[in-house]
Structure formats: structure tokens, C-alpha cells
């Protein structure tokens, strides 16, 4: 019999036992392929959108607001309308027109509800131009023809049930105004979720930019035969070198895609990371499966060796089975991955980010990556069992004797595991003692990897002791059946360790992230209680600046003792040692010193709000050797240059306003004659004894501005908990794949174990063990394996989480909180996972015919 025929026969004979391993491979490959298809589809969607919305050449003003910390005034940069005529007169220009676009707007319907996206996509408002016909078409009505008309995109109209004639209110930094819907336009390409609104040009200039005669960009289309590059060169020469930023259609699309690409890379690598965890867990399942299959076929392998099969042939036979398993699982995984990507697109669409299956992108490399990865991982995981099968001598196999090298290999494995665990512990200990978070994070990463590998290798040694302790507390309550389950779990510590390790990995990450998340919330709320003296905080979740009208409504609200302005201003700051940084500086009212209690290491913070005075953080002071009384040159973006005296140095050992540099609002006004930017956040203090009335008044004052939230301390703490909770829930959902694969591993191990113990089960049934007792024994064995993995995983994860919190403490998050309720709940839930995993193996064992089982050879 050839090796291939033998492998095919064995694969077909054990196909039922291979199913769960194939499912594990399929899930892991599906996660990888689904991630690649999903992110490629998103990239395709944005590529089409950016290509459709970009003119042949676009002229933009020089960026004076963005940069390392510089903050916008709430209005985009502009260029004079005369540039449109200059561009139109350039040779090769077929058409030039000015455009207005602003993302600093909020649009509400007649019920006062914000119609902007909730997915994080922007609300874009601008003027309707011929360039927009590249990407939009008017479905109903007409384009806006005056200050009382507005056109909205069809997706937004459908979501909020808007129709021609409905009134919308637009809120911008320059003011707010109402207009009726005159038309509804739809995208010719997929809209990823932005809300888009159009006005006529004079209205867009006046209401969004604050004045007419200016634009945010100029779009130029080339005449036939003129390339974009040539047109860009000609327009640049006509306008003067360096005065404006010019981009071809390809350059504009690439720049926009780069901005989106950084976010997409984070999404892709995060999802692939979770897929890698699932693959790692799947490796244990495959190793266990093939180890048990090899053990069950020991006598068969001995007979084959006795009739002339070589070690290489036996080895090759097992690897071919793994190749078949990997191929089947990977092919199914590629198909499931496309389905998973479509499912993710539907989920994103329900959250407000519209993705069309018309743009579904499956590049040629995606199936290749899935197939190669799935097959290679499966074959590599089966290599050790295959090698072991090849080393079994014919006589030992025929006598059902084990391999002499087993004990020695186990000792070496345990020694290596202990060494790696010690190295991982040292890495975690070093990370906890690090002086900076950056240096400590490297030690933390190394410690996590090494300790995880160490526990995996050292697991069989731990299994003996840990399972006995768990059995003493849990299994002994079930009498002889519990002792039988304990013996079965201890019969093969290596198998128990490998099965438990699969569950350990997922739960270790759950425990680590739970500790980190709880510590972050506890630290932030503790810092809030300690540092924030204000009764109320007013801000926008989407980062919208507080408009002057909204600010005036807040200031006029009754039952308040004071309201504090807080603005971020872009500056270039030159320290006494001559180093210049582009950063931002905080302009606040003197009452801010009461609203946020910042500790100082030198000077008094109240002095920093005096004329031509400021404060700096102690990290900046140490870096540039700044002391109280030193002078710092500050060049305000769009304003004058000042020389400010350092009156206070604040500690950076906080999580709120870490590293902030403060000046007074009056000082900022002196050096920004064009006016201050709007507030990024505001604080308010209630009159003594009137907190409830003040809270109600502020809520009422902000009701016309749904983009802002009024929060007291309780609200703010709950928001922090909700934000961290949402992030953790998303991570738990992704880790669920690894835990599902781990559960499949427990099921597979128990199913193969039942087959392996067929004669033993038959004998126990013959001497009086009932079917009910048999099923309970298998369920208890599964429970103890699950609890073993959970105990190791939760303990390891808490160690990682405590170390990570030590690094967060360097960033001001000092409180360590271990959520014991969650940890205990997860541990108890692991027992139910074990019960669930044992349902099918226990049922099959209970149906086993006693005489047939005894006769099994």
C-alpha cells in the first residue's frame, strides 16, 4: 500500500474525529481572509470616493492650523476669490470654480435631533458646484438657489426620514441658520457614511466661512490632451511658487487615502492579531488530535513497520493526513471569510458606515494567504505527533509499550518551560520597575510572550498539582464518579495541559484587559474626584468646538457662580535654551485654577494667569532646564509674538491636562487681535446649594445644541465606564473566536479520549457503572480541564494586567483595581464551558454497547 493510499484510508476512517480540527482551521482562516477582504473593500470604497470627488488639479490654501498640536478656530483656511480667475486664465484649464467645504458644522432637524453620522464619519457642508456632479446626481427637487434652501444627500434623508420642504438648522462657529430642503442628491459611488449638505455659494461663504469673497479650494479641470501634472505645473507658475498647495487628482486621492489608511492599518492589524490568537489556540487542538490518533493507532503502526514500512513513510503518512485536513479547512475558511467580510459590512452599515457589496474586493493574494497559512499551520502542528509516530519501534508498538524517550522529552520540555516562565517573570518584574512607559512596554511585551510560552510548556507539570487541588474542592463531592474523572484527567498530564492551555490563552487576555480597563476607570474617576472642582463639564463627544452662541447660552444660564472658558491655541514656543516646538497652549480664565486643581512643583498656578505670564509642565521644564522666572518666546499662530514669564511649573504626574501650558484668556486676547478660537471645553460651578437647579438650567440651555453634552461628575464617570466597557466588549467579542476554538479542542480531546478508552468504558459498564454515572464522569473530567485552563489563564492574565497598570501609573493612572466579580464570574463560567463541551462525547459514551466495547481490540 502506498503512503498516499494509506493516508487517504486513515483520513477517511477518522473523518468524524477530524471534523472539529477542520472547523478550528476553517474559523482561523476565515478570520484572516475576512479581515483582508473587509479592509480591502473599505479601501476600495474610499479610493473610488476620493477619485470621484477630486478635480484634475485642486488649489488649497497653505495649512496654517494643523500640525503638532495647533488647533483649528472652527473655520477652515481660505483663499481669495481672485484665485479662481487666475486659475481660469491659465493655459490648458477648461474650467475653474471655487469650492467651500466645512466639517465644523452640526445640522439638526425640526425636532432638534442631530442628523449627523454616529459612526465617526463627518458632517460636510459646502456649496454646490459642477465639480460635485462627478460624484453626485440630483434625484428629486433642485440644487439650492438662495439663502433659504439646502440640499441633502439621499442616505441621510433616508435615515432621518427627510423630505423636500423639511426645515434643517445648521450650526456653525459663525452662527446658525435655517433652510428648507430643496433637493435630495445621491452618490454615484458608495458613501462610507458621511452626511453631506449643499448651499448656494454666497450662503456657504457667509454662513460657513464668516464672509463672502473667499473659498476653501479651487477646482480646475484640464482641457483634452493636457495632463494633470502639466496643468499643476502651469497653475503653480501662474500663482507663484509656495503660495498655495496644489495637488493633482491622483495626489489628492492618495493623500486622502493615506489619512484613512492609517486608521485602516490599525483595524487590519488588530483583527489579524486576534486571528493569530485563534491560530495559536488551534495549534493545540491539532497537536492533541494527531497525538491521540497516533496513540490509538500504535499497534497498527507497529504492524506496518514490521512488514517493511520505514519511519519516513509513517511520518509522511501522518503529515499527508494533516495536509488533507489543512487543505479542507483552509478552502472552507476562504469561503467563510468572504461571508464574514459581508457580515462585518452589514454590521458597519447598521452602525452608520455604509459599505456596499458592489465594492466587495477579493484580491488574488487573499485566498493564497488563507490557504498557505491554514495548511502550513496545520502541517507544522502535526509535525511532532508525526515524528513521534515514526520513532515507534515495531516490537514496542506491537506490545502497546510507550516510547522510552517520552519521559526524557517531558523532562526537557518541563525544564525549558520553567526557564521561559522565569525569563517571562523577570521581564514583567523589570517592566513594573521601569522609569518610563516606553521602555517598560518593551519588557512587558517580552514578559507576556515568554511567560505564555513557559506556561504552555510547563503546563503538564502544573496539571498534576492543579487538577488535584481542583478535584479536592469540586470532584470529591461526587464520590467515586468524581474520583474516576480526576484519574482520567491525570492519566495524561501532557494532553490535559495542552487542552487547558488552549483555553488559558483566551482567558489570560480577557483577565489582563479586564484588570487594565478597570484600573483605567478607577484611576480616571479617582483623578476626577481629586483634581476636578467644577460641578459641570460641557463638551462635544465628536470634538466639535463650542460655538459663540452656545457659549453665550451657557454663560447666561442661572444658578451658576461662574463659567470657565478653555481654549487651545496653536503656537510656536521657544524655550530659554533656544529650542522651538510647534505645539498648543491652553488659554483659560483664572477660575480654571479652582475648576481643576493642578499641583505645582514650583510657583503658584494662579500667578500664571497674570499678564504676560504662563505655566509649563515639569517634563518640559526638566527637558529644557526651565525655572520659575524664566522667559519663553511664544509666537501665536495668526497673531503676534510674545515673551511670557514662567510663573508656575505643574506636575505631569496626572492624567488630566498632562503637560498643559496655561495662560490667561486676557493674555491670549492681547496677542490674537483677530479674535480667540472657540472653546474646546467649558466648566461651570453651581451656586451653593443649587446644584440640581443649575444642572437643569444648563441642560435646558444646551437643548438647542445637541452636539454638546452637559455632565456632572456622576455623568462623567459613567461616560468613562461606558467608553471603556464598549472597548472591552468589542475585544471580548473578538477573543470569543479563540475561546470557541478552545472549546472545540476540549470536545475533540474528550471525543478521542472516549474512543481511546472504549474497552475500559465497557468494563466499567459491565461491573455496574450506569450510563448516567458514565456521562457524569466525562462531564466532570471536562469541567476539571476547563477549570484548570481557566485558573492558569486568569492568574497569568492578572499578572500581565498588574504589570501593565504599573506602566499606566507612569502616565498618571495610579489606581490598581482588580475586578474580582468579573474574574470569579469568568472562572465559574468556565465550568459551564466544560459542561457544554462534554455534551456530545458524554452522550456518545453513554450509547456505547457494553459487549462491543469489551470486545474492542
TrEMBL record:
Region annotation Disordered: where it falls in the sequence: 59-78
Domain of life: Bacteria
Molecular function GO terms recorded: transmembrane transporter activity
Membrane topology qualifier: Multi-pass membrane protein
Transmembrane segments: 269-295, 318-345, 365-386, 414-432, 452-478, 499-522, 730-755, 780-800, 820-840
GO CC terms, sorted: plasma membrane
Keyword list, A-Z: Cell membrane, Membrane, Transmembrane, Transmembrane helix
Cell compartment(s), UniProt: Cell membrane
All residue ranges annotated as the MacB-like periplasmic core domain in the record: 19-236, 499-698
Domain ABC3 transporter permease C-terminal: residue ranges: 274-394, 734-849
PANTHER family registered for this protein in UniProt: ABC TRANSPORTER PERMEASE YTRF, MEMBRANE COMPONENT OF TRANSPORTER-RELATED
Family: Belongs to the ABC-4 integral membrane protein family.
Name of the protein in question: ABC transporter permease
Amino acid at each position: 500500500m502506498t503512503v498516499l493510499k494509506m493516508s487517504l484510508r486513515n483520513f477517511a476512517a477518522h473523518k468524524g474525529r477530524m471534523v472539529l480540527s477542520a472547523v478550528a482551521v476553517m474559523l482561523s482562516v476565515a478570520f484572516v481572509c475576512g479581515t483582508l477582504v473587509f479592509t480591502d473593500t473599505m479601501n476600495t470604497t474610499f479610493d473610488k470616493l476620493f477619485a470621484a470627488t477630486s478635480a484634475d488639479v485642486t488649489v488649497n490654501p497653505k495649512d496654517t492650523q494643523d500640525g503638532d498640536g495647533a488647533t483649528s478656530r472652527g473655520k477652515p483656511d481660505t483663499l481669495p476669490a481672485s484665485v479662481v480667475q487666475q486659475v481660469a486664465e491659465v493655459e490648458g484649464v477648461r474650467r475653474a470654480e471655487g469650492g467651500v467645504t466645512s466639517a465644523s458644522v452640526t445640522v439638526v432637524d425640526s425636532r432638534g435631533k442631530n442628523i449627523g453620522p454616529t459612526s465617526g464619519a463627518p458632517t460636510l457642508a459646502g456649496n454646490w458646484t459642477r465639480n460635485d456632479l462627478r460624484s453626485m446626481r440630483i434625484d428629486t427637487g433642485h440644487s439650492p438657489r438662495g439663502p433659504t434652501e439646502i440640499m441633502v444627500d439621499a442616505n441621510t434623508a433616508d435615515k432621518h426620514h427627510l423630505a423636500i420642504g423639511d426645515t434643517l438648522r445648521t450650526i456653525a462657529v459663525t452662527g446658525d441658520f435655517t433652510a428648507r430642503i430643496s433637493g435630495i442628491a445621491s452618490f454615484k459611488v458608495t458613501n462610507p457614511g458621511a452626511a453631506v449638505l449643499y448651499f448656494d455659494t454666497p450662503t456657504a461663504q457667509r454662513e460657513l466661512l464668516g464672509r463672502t469673497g473667499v473659498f476653501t479650494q479651487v477646482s480646475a479641470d484640464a482641457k483634452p490632451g493636457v495632463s494633470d501634472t502639466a496643468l499643476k505645473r502651469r497653475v503653480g507658475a501662474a500663482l507663484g511658487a509656495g503660495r498655495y498647495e496644489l495637488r493633482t487628482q491622483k495626489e489628492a486621492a492618495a493623500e486622502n487615502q493615506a489619512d484613512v489608511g492609517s486608521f485602516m492599518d490599525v483595524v487590519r492589524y488588530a483583527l489579524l492579531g486576534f486571528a493569530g490568537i485563534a491560530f495559536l489556540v488551534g495549534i493545540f487542538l491539532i497537536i492533541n488530535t494527531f497525538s491521540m490518533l497516533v496513540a490509538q493507532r500504535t499497534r497498527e503502526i507497529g504492524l506496518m513497520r514490521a512488514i517493511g514500512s520505514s519511519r519516513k513513510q509513517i511520518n509522511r503518512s501522518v503529515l499527508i493526513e494533516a495536509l488533507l485536513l489543512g487543505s479542507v479547512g483552509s478552502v472552507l475558511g476562504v469561503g467563510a471569510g468572504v461571508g464574514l467580510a459581508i457580515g462585518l459590512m452589514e454590521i458597519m452599515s447598521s452602525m452608520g458606515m455604509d459599505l456596499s457589496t458592489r465594492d466587495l474586493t477579493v484580491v488574488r493574494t487573499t485566498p493564497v494567504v488563507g490557504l498557505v497559512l491554514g495548511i502550513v499551520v496545520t502541517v507544522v502542528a502535526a509535525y511532532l505527533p508525526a515524528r513521534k509516530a515514526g520513532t515507534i519501534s515495531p516490537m514496542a508498538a506491537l506490545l502497546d509499550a510507550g516510547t522510552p524517550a517520552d519521559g526524557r522529552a517531558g523532562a526537557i520540555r518541563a525544564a525549558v518551560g520553567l526557564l521561559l516562565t522565569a525569563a517571562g517573570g523577570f521581564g514583567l518584574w523589570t517592566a513594573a520597575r521601569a522609569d518610563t512607559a516606553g521602555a517598560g512596554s518593551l519588557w512587558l511585551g517580552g514578559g507576556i510572550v515568554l511567560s505564555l510560552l513557559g506556561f504552555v510548556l510547563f503546563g503538564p507539570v502544573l496539571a498534576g498539582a492543579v487538577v488535584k487541588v481542583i478535584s479536592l474542592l469540586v470532584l470529591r463531592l461526587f464520590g467515586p464518579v468524581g474520583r474516576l474523572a480526576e484519574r482520567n484527567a491525570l492519566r495524561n498530564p501532557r494532553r490535559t495541559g495542552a487542552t487547558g492551555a488552549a483555553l488559558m490563552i483566551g482567558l489570560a487576555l480577557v483577565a489582563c484587559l479586564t484588570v487594565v480597563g478597570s484600573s483605567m476607570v478607577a484611576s480616571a474617576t479617582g483623578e476626577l474626584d481629586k483634581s476636578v472642582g467644577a460641578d459641570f463639564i460641557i463638551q462635544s463627544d465628536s470634538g466639535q468646538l463650542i460655538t459663540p452662541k452656545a457659549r453665550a447660552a451657557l454663560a447666561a444660564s442661572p444658578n451658576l457662580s461662574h463659567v470657565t472658558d478653555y481654549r487651545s491655541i496653536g503656537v510656536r514656543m521657544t524655550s530659554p535654551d533656544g529650542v522651538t516646538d510647534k505645539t498648543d497652549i491652553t488659554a483659560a480664565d483664572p477660575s480654571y485654577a479652582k475648576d481643576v486643581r493642578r499641583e505645582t512643583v514650583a510657583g503658584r498656578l494662579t500667578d500664571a494667569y497674570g499678564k504676560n505670564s504662563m505655566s509649563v509642565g515639569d517634563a518640559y521644564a526638566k527637558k529644557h532646564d526651565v525655572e520659575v522666572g524664566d522667559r519663553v518666546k511664544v509666537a501665536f499662530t495668526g497673531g503676534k509674538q510674545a515673551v511670557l514669564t514662567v510663573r508656575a511649573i505643574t506636575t505631569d504626574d496626572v492624567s488630566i491636562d498632562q503637560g498643559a501650558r496655561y495662560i490667561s484668556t486676557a493674555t491670549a486676547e492681547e496677542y490674537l487681535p483677530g479674535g480667540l478660537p472657540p472653546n474646546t471645553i467649558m466648566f461651570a460651578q453651581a451656586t451653593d446649594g443649587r446644584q440640581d437647579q443649575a444642572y437643569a438650567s444648563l441642560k435646558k440651555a444646551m437643548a438647542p445644541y445637541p452636539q454638546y453634552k452637559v455632565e456632572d461628575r456622576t455623568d462623567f464617570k459613567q461616560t468613562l465606564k461606558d467608553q471603556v466597557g464598549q472597548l472591552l466588549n468589542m475585544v471580548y467579542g473578538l477573543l470569543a473566536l479563540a475561546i470557541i476554538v478552545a472549546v472545540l479542542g476540549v470536545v475533540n480531546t474528550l471525543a478521542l479520549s472516549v474512543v481511546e478508552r472504549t474497552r475500559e468504558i465497557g468494563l466499567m459498564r459491565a461491573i455496574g457503572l450506569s450510563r448516567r454515572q458514565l456521562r457524569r464522569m466525562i462531564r466532570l473530567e471536562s469541567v476539571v480541564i476547563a477549570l484548570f485552563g481557566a485558573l492558569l489563564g486568569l492568574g497569568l492574565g492578572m499578572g500581565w494586567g498588574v504589570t501593565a497598570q504599573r506602566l499606566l501609573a507612569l502616565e498618571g493612572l495610579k489606581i490598581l483595581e482588580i475586578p474580582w466579580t468579573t474574574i470569579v464570574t469568568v472562572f465559574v463560567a468556565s465550568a459551564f464551558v466544560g459542561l457544554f463541551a462534554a455534551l456530545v462525547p458524554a452522550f456518545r459514551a453513554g450509547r456505547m454497547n457494553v459487549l462491543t466495547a469489551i470486545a474492542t481490540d
